[in-house]
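Data deposition worksheet. Section B asks for the primary sequence of the deposited chain exactly as it was used as input, without tags or linkers unless they were present during the calculation. Section C holds the resulting structure in token form. Section D is free text for depositor observations; keep each observation to a single sentence. Incomplete worksheets are returned to the depositor.
Section A, Depositor: J.P.
Section B:
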Amino acid sequence: MAITASLVKELRERTGAGMMECKKALTETNGDIEAAIENMRKSGQAKAAKKAGRTAADGVIVIATSGDGKASVMVEVNCETDFVAKDDNFKSFADAVADRALNSDVADVDALMALPLHEGEDTTIEEARQGLVSKIGENMAVRRFTRTAAQGDLSSYSHGVRIGVVVDITGGDEELGRDIAMHIAASNPVCVSEDEVPAEKLAKEREITEAQAKDSGKPDNIIEKMVEGRMRKFVNEITLLGQPFVKDPDTTVGKLAKAKGATINGFKRFEVGEGIEKKVEDFREEVMAQAAAARGE
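Section C:
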């Protein structure tokens, strides 16, 4: 059967693969487009597996909120480069994943990946991910998601696609909620208040502070005051209520919330790639490795 341009075009539209890949697949199946699609899906999954070891530390944070504003989901979907993070196909995939996470009760990423990407369809999120890896040529992963059920009202803020914040506030107004979410994005507090600071974090900081104070050579009673002062400063720096408000550093977030009659119940903040160790590529070694491979070494 003749491999016509229209047949190649149809296969490209249905698979998203390149023109030469489509032409080769059709040639191998003697123009049988359905068989070509099946073979390309099989090879696409193989390509996805080959790319699975590559570090995906770029990507997007997507926030999805229910119609009544009482539930929210935040998802991190990773890729290898910021170029792909801007790709419409990648962004559409990430949006669909966030929507499925919002409208399901799955507890972890593995269970989420087994769900259909779109309600009523057969293709799972994992199968769609593998197809996208094959189409775009980069490793991708749904890294994590978190749900928030409102005690009060939910506000969210996205700093581009790289940082997302959801904050739960009782009282105040919409502007206050957005301002505090924006502050959290910028200042990255550890928790809301002092009583939520992990005990081990306080103990480690006190140990460091005491060692520094003792090096000053001052009397013990002065050292004690120095340590307590520095610890108060440390707690204010890492707690949301103690931090100077980014839009008005003369007041703290705690004082701002109190003036507005609001209580901050909690927040969640995601930043793309946080905690992922990126592999540093040595360009010279990479070229030498490719040359060696070409020589069959």
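Section D:
The beta strands are 58-65, 71-79, 141-149, 153-159, 163-170, 244-245, 248-252, 263-271.
The mean pLDDT is 87.
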